[in-house]
Write a structure and sequence with these properties.
Radius of gyration: 20 Å
Largest sheet: 7 strands, parallel
CATH architecture of the domain at 1-150: Alpha-Beta Barrel
Helix content: 40-55%
Structural class: alpha/beta
CATH topology of the domain at 1-150: TIM Barrel
Order of helices and strands: HEHEEHEHHEEEHEHEHHHHHEHEH
Shape: globular
Number of strands: 11
CATH class of the domain at 1-150: Alpha Beta
Distance between the termini: 15 Å
């Protein structure tokens, strides 16, 4: 589950939650949240899922991980996502052309910093990043931190199989998208790199549980799905499922600023294929039914966040603890 705060996290660890992830948007930054997570947990795996990859240099990503490693030794991962092209251009003011190639190069450069030994010059040469750092201070030393990529479409999923330690599936992922698109692309990437073992799969699932008002939980999940589907990056996913008409309605409502109509346009088929919501019993059954439509190694239960207050997100986080063990 994403980071719900220290109080909930303590209860979550006691309930059997084994990992937390941080994310980021305009109102929260991944590594600041990761610092809170590291300090307020004891055994859980922690990491960003994801941090915006191109918004920071390879040095900045690696230095953030190094600064937290002393407190989270052996239980950290680094999840990187490219972000939408317009977000990189208009929000961050950074180049994001050729995102798959740029991401592969970034992974290599970050690893160069994470694997740097004391006394050795840190060197890396790629098409987008070049490092030639003669760090004389004895502050380095090799860190083995898994790097995972947010691979939504085929090419980025293949890149995760080729250069990363794993993939992070998006909250929109369905069973069909995992099995018909993402996993074949992952396998193609691992084979191209000559790797024999499959890479790690993380994935998060939009999760809204409310035993007193399951309809509200479903509405919040619909709104979250609709918000994601306003982005054209996900058009191959939409076409794969034949959801062009409801997504066109979602985007028209978004342009009007009508968030209720956005939620209404999400069909029952879309809701059941993507989200886990309703009562605890409903949600446990939905999780169990997803089977291989969930990430193989680690599942994050992600409360909706679009137009959902922090108090309600915390309530959803607490309610999701009733789902531990459902898979």
């Amino acid at each position: 589950m994403p980071w719900p705060g220290a109080t909930v996290a303590r209860d979550a660890e006691k309930s059997g939650v084994t990992a937390f992830c941080s994310g980021e948007f305009v109102d929260h930054e991944a590594y600041t949240t990761l610092a809170e997570m590291v300090m307020a947990t004891e055994t859980a795996l922690v990491g960003p899922a994801i941090a915006y990859a191109f918004a920071r240099s390879p040095y900045a990503h690696a230095a953030a991980v190094r600064s937290l490693w002393k407190h989270g030794r052996g239980r950290m991962f680094l999840g990187l996502g490219s972000g939408a092209y317009r977000i990189n251009r208009d929000w961050f003011g950074v180049a994001a052309d050729h995102p798959v190639d740029r991401m592969c190069d970034l992974v290599g450069a970050v690893r160069a910093w994470l694997h740097a030994e004391n006394g050795a010059v840190v060197r890396y040469e790629g098409p987008y990043y070049r490092i030639d750092a003669d760090v004389r201070a004895p502050v380095l030393g090799r860190l083995e931190v898994p790097i995972l990529l947010a691979g939504f479409n085929k090419r980025m999923a293949a890149a995760a199989g080729r250069v990363a330690d794993g993939i992070i599936g998006h909250g929109l992922f369905t069973r069909s998208w995992w099995n018909d698109v993402v996993r074949p692309a992952l396998a193609e990437g691992t084979q191209a790199a000559g790797r024999s073992a499959p890479v790690t799969e993380h994935g998060w699932v939009i999760t809204a549980v409310n035993d007193e008002d399951p309809a509200r939980a479903a509405a919040d999940a619909r709104r979250m799905i609709a918000f994601y589907l306003t982005v054209k990056t996900y058009d191959p996913f939409v076409a794969h499922h034949g959801w062009e008409d409801p997504v066109a309605a979602i985007r028209a409502a978004f342009r009007r600023g009508d968030t209720d109509a956005m939620a209404t346009a999400v069909t029952d088929e879309m809701l059941s294929a993507i989200a886990v919501c309703g009562t605890t019993s409903d949600a446990r059954a939905a999780l169990a039914a997803r089977g291989d439509g969930l990430a193989r190694d680690l599942i994050f239960l992600a409360p909706p966040s679009f137009l959902v207050s922090s108090r309600r997100r915390e309530a959803y986080a607490k309610a999701s603890l009733g789902l531990v063990g459902a898979v």
